[in-house]
Design goal:
The chain has 375 residues and is of the alpha/beta class. The protein contains 15 helices and 15 strands. α11 links the parallel β12 and β13. α8 packs across α9.
């Protein structure tokens, strides 16, 4: 089977020749500092991006595209160092303080101020980030490049309240549900308009297999907004994207949302989407319980990322994988992989041991990937 055929078998709840281990930039891959650490431990230097990572560890991935918007002004920023930290200020008024070399440190920045604080700052942000035209030449190039693809094509599907939270900060975005619903709805309506103008033409022209949304609006105990608020502000967006995507032949409409998603997954099914990942285990997402509740829903992730860190044991790796992963595979519609990007203190030995066991569980060919098997 090709990667594309294998993908279709998974999302159709059929049995592939072996179960693919998918990875993306934020699911199953690794943060920059962790990659540096792995190279010090023996990972070949040429394994330095997602494509090389997938070849080395015998994983599968997607081709990725977004919209065809062009001539977007963009947001200018200035950066300086002060008191042992790096500060980033944007022309929107946003201000962030972070540790120096934060891309390698895996440290949460301190968001002192956000892009959107009121109607005026939203209008300024919108002016700076909205494309001015469609790049039809780019669309024609993509049509030729992906006409005879052998692996699934995934197109960016945007999001709703999670993006408002990203722009406003959680406190303002939560208060806006009650204090300024018109502003919040205008933001989400604009996100949908951008999809309509610049991404729907991609769906119609290329007929991708997968649509990827993003929210991250669940924390360790559940969604930050209520199901009622989701239905009020977000449902129309999801219904509209689903309508176009299904008409264009998509087979997977999946949302990347960290945190506990026990309330969110049924809502996704309600609005016409059929998948969720990464099912973070530190939040207690019981994947087998979710499968019993949603028998036709596609789940991905579900493997605690910390089992491959320094100090973990072979026994912990085995407990994390068995029996949950084989049981999920037996029921179908599951993409097993780590529940987030791997961390800085990853162990190369533990990672190879974990991949060895995963490939055994998935029935992979013994020569899939070049990593050293550790049994």
């Amino acid at each position: 089977m090709t990667e594309l055929q294998r993908f279709k078998a998974v999302v159709r709840f059929e049995r592939p020749d072996y179960w693919p281990l998918y990875t993306l930039g934020g699911l199953g891959y690794i943060h920059g500092g962790g990659l540096v650490n792995l190279h010090r431990q023996g990972l070949p230097a040429e394994v330095n991006d997602v494509e090389a990572w997938c070849r080395f560890f015998g994983q599968a991935t997607f081709d990725h595209l977004a919209g065809i918007g062009a001539d977007c002004p963009g947001v200018k920023t200035e950066t300086w160092r002060e008191g042992g930290f790096e500060f980033v200020r944007s022309e929107t008024g946003a201000l962030t303080r972070q540790v120096i070399d934060n891309d390698l440190a895996y440290s949460m920045p301190d968001f002192i101020e956000f892009d959107v604080r009121d109607r005026a700052s939203w209008e300024k942000y919108k002016e700076l980030t909205t494309p001015r035209r469609k790049d039809l030449a780019l669309l024609e190039d993509w049509k030729k490049r992906f006409a005879h693809r052998k692996r699934p094509l995934m197109v960016w599907g945007g999001g709703t309240w999670g993006w408002a939270r990203q722009l406003m900060g959680p406190e303002r975005a939560l208060l806006a549900v009650y204090d300024d619903p018109a502003l919040l709805q205008d933001m989400i309506d604009h996100f949908l308009w951008v999809m309509e103008e610049f991404t729907f033409p991609v769906l119609e022209a290329l007929r991708p297999e997968a649509i990827l949304g993003w929210e991250d609006f669940a924390y360790n105990h559940g969604m930050l907004i209520s199901p009622a608020a989701f239905r009020k502000f977000c449902a129309n967006y999801y219904h509209r994207v689903a309508e176009v995507a299904w008409d264009c032949g998509a087979e997977l409409l999946i949302v990347d949302c960290d945190g506990k998603v026990d309330e969110f997954c049924p809502l996704l099914e309600e609005v016409g989407w059929n998948g969720n990942w990464p099912l973070e285990q530190v939040c207690g997402n019981p994947i087998l319980d979710y499968r019993r509740r949603q028998s036709d829903f596609v789940f991905g992730g579900g493997i605690e990322k910390e089992i491959v860190n320094v100090g973990s044991s072979p026994e912990r790796i085995e407990r994390e994988l068995v029996p949950r992963i084989p049981e999920m595979l037996e029921q179908g519609g599951f993409m097993p992989m780590f529940d987030h990007a791997l961390q800085v203190d990853v162990s190369y030995e533990n990672l190879c041991r974990c991949f060895t066991r995963l490939h055994e569980i998935c029935g992979s060919p013994e020569d899939l990937g070049a990593f050293p098997r550790i049994y």
